[in-house]
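Retry 2 of 3 after timeout on previous attempt. Resubmitting structure tokens to design endpoint.
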């Protein structure tokens, strides 16, 4: 691209919180960048977090056996000096708006690439590289439903409804509880980070977003200071289904 974006924003979230639907909805407006997970590749592997990497070494090995084997990629894919120009080209709309999604579970990895002192808080590192930025915090009230969705995804590598057609995830209370605690902790970590850095994000709750799609997208556009004449219908098929509902009920009954 010939010039730096005039506006940069980050959608900060945890997995299966509705952030993909929001980002796709914003991209569909044509005026809010094309926010995707440009920075999700990890330095040690060159790949996004693998299913088993969502769990620490203290979990039952039998539970890990339900997950795909860990792959490795090319760590050079995480070289920001090389890759950032392409990300900016892909993620910026003609009106100069660039958006990206960030998950807490790789935020520290990104900060380490941006700064030699990521422990300083991170906002300075983001500002030095991207300039003053705006933030949207996506949360999901029902953490059990969120964890069920994530547990299905890490078993199948299916991050959308169509990709899971040929996969057969199985219920496991331990895996769901582990992920429920994780997404709750990561959501709280975003809240603490915003407070520590005096950042006032726009908060978007999944349940409200699903019930009021157009109103929520317009609220985000207002936060960014851009406008759209038309808000397209939701571009993605929801992955939640009867099986998810049954698993949520089964988990809550056993609690």
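Retry 2 succeeded. Sequence:
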């Amino acid at each position: 691209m010939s010039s730096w974006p005039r506006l940069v924003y980050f959608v900060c979230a945890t997995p299966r919180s509705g952030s993909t639907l929001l980002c796709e909805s914003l991209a569909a407006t044509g005026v809010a960048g094309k926010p995707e997970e440009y920075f999700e590749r990890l330095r040690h592997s060159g790949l996004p977090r693998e299913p088993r990497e969502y769990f620490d070494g203290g979990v039952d090995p039998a539970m890990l056996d339900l997950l795909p084997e860990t792959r490795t990629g090319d760590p050079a894919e995480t070289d920001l000096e090389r890759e950032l120009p392409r990300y900016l080209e892909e993620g910026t709309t003609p009106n100069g708006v660039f958006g990206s999604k960030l998950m807490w579970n790789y935020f520290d990895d990104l900060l380490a690439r941006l700064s030699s002192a990521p422990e300083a808080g991170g906002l300075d590192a983001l500002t030095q590289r991207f300039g003053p930025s705006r933030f949207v915090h996506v949360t999901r009230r029902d953490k059990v439903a969120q964890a069920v969705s994530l547990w299905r995804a890490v078993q199948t590598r299916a991050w959308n409804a169509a990709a899971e057609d040929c996969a057969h995830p199985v219920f496991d209370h331990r895996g769901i509880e582990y992920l429920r605690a994780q997404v709750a902790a990561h959501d709280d970590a975003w809240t603490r980070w915003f407070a520590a850095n005096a950042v006032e994000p726009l908060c978007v709750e999944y349940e409200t977003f699903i019930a009021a799609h157009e109103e929520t997208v317009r609220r985000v556009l207002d936060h960014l200071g851009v406008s759209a004449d038309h808000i397209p219908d939701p571009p993605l098929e929801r992955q939640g289904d009867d099986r998810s509902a049954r698993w949520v009920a089964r988990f809550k009954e056993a609690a």
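Attempt log closed. The domain at 7-254 is CATH 3.40.50.300 (Rossmann fold).
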